[in-house]
Structures are given as C-alpha cells and as structure tokens.
C-alpha cells in the first residue's frame, strides 16, 4: 500500500492520540502536529473521501480499518527503528527523530530484515 509521508504522519498521529486520550478531534491533531485547524479539517475531508477516517456528528475522528492498518504499520516502524538505532549507539533523542524520517521510506523487506537482525541484540 503506497501512501505519502504526510498522510502516514497524520494517521500515526490520530492513532497515538486515540491511544492517549480515547477521543480525537481535529483541534487535537492541529495542536499535536502544529498545523492550523482549517488545514487539519481539509486533510480529514480528503481522508474521509479516501476511506481512511470517519468523522461523527460531534467531530470525533476514528480510523477506518484501512486507515488503522497504515497507522499501526507506521507506528510499529517508528518504534522499532528508534529502538534499533539506539541499540546501534545513537542517542535516544536523535534515534526518535531519525526513526520518524526513516519510517516513511524504508521498504518492508529492509524493515523486516532490520527487525530480525536486531531482535536478540
């Protein structure tokens, strides 16, 4: 499944907020990502049209199965890559920042090999 980096970041943010607070609204995403509410609202409209999120009458945003799959995959890569980089000796702060960039471009094959290689290290 191919999706742009920005979309992965939005979906991952929605998942993180959902796990943290239980309810996600456009204003929460705007605050977390540092974007304006109109920018978030426009993106959520695109996500609804493409079947990644649903928005109820109260403005609560929920990931669809399709959106959740992408968000979980992105979050898994973020966490695992951060841990791998730290195992290699990268500071925690740098590892988290670099993992955020790498997670969007690494192939599934390479990611799986990284996980396997560093599993017991």
Automatic annotation (TrEMBL):
GO molecular function terms listed in the Swiss-Prot or TrEMBL record = DNA binding; DNA-binding transcription factor activity; protein dimerization activity; transition metal ion binding
Q: Which domain of life is it from?
A: Bacteria
Claim: Transcription regulation is one of the keywords in the record: yes
Source species taxonomy? Bacteria, Bacillati, Bacillota, Clostridia, Lachnospirales
Record keywords? DNA-binding, Transcription, Transcription regulation
Which Pfam family, an example, fits this chain? Fe_dep_repress
Q: What is this protein called?
A: Metal-dependent transcriptional regulator
Database matches in SMART domains: HTH_DTXR
Gene3D superfamilies (alphabetical): Iron dependent repressor, metal binding and dimerisation domain, Winged helix-like DNA-binding domain superfamily/Winged helix DNA-binding domain
| Family to which this protein belongs | Belongs to the DtxR/MntR family.
Using the record's annotation, list all stretches that form the HTH dtxR-type domain: 1-64
Question: Which PANTHER family does the UniProt entry name for this protein?
Answer: IRON (METAL) DEPENDENT REPRESSOR, DTXR FAMILY, IRON-DEPENDENT TRANSCRIPTIONAL REGULATOR
Species source reads Lachnoanaerobaculum gingivalis
